[in-house]
Write a structure and sequence with these properties.
By secondary structure, the chain is α/β, with parallel strands linked by helices. It has helices at residues 49-56, 60-66, 70-81, 92-105, 116-120, 128-138, 145-160; strands at residues 2-9, 18-24, 30-34, 86-89, 113-115. Helix 6 packs across helix 7. The protein has a five-stranded mixed sheet with strand order 3-2-1-4-5. The chain is globular and about 45 Å long.
Length: 166
């Protein structure tokens, strides 16, 4: 049974940090959590205006107003995802942002996040290129964490076949 997870971030540099995380469960349920950057003791200040206006559409003000603390987000993820053997993401950046989130919370995840290309190595006859072709056939990604987690799940389901997707 696998889960897909995605992050949105303040930008695409080493100074960036996670601002939203979303996941999609095998039963079809999904969730998104906004992350308040002011709750991080790591001094998360980097902000990419292009990412806000052209990619995810989330403002720093909205994150401060509606976002959860880094600790609450990590507690939620640990409680919700600890039961799944495979938690999958589509980018090395997601691994980076997961690490940055948990470091800020002074916590460790109760699950292992794996980039889908590495995970597919254990599936004979299925490659990362198959997955990327499925993603491309779905059109552009929505660039919001929950929607992207569902998008990744759909592409994996297409790649693996309906009978192998749980």
């Amino acid at each position: 049974m696998w889960v897909t997870l995605d992050f949105e971030a303040s930008g695409l540099t080493e100074a960036s940090y996670p601002i939203e995380v979303g996941y999609s469960l095998p039963d079809g349920n999904s969730i998104s959590l906004l992350i308040n950057p002011d709750t991080s003791p790591e001094n998360w200040q980097h902000w990419d205006d292009f990412a806000e206006t052209e990619i995810h559409g989330l403002s720093r003000f909205a994150l401060k107003k509606d976002g959860l603390s880094v600790i609450d987000v990590c507690k939620h993820l640990n409680g919700a995802l600890c039961y799944y053997s495979d938690v999958l993401c589509d980018s090395q950046w997601d691994l980076f942002w997961l690490g940055r989130l948990y470091k800020a919370a002074h916590m460790r995840p109760t699950f292992t996040l794996t980039e889908v290309g590495h995970w597919l190595l254990n599936h004979d006859g299925v490659s990362r290129q198959d997955f990327l072709a499925a993603l491309e056939s779905l059109g552009p990604a929505p660039h919001r964490a929950e929607a992207d987690a569902k998008y990744i799940r759909e592409a994996l389901s297409m790649t693996l076949g309906k009978e192998r997707c749980s």
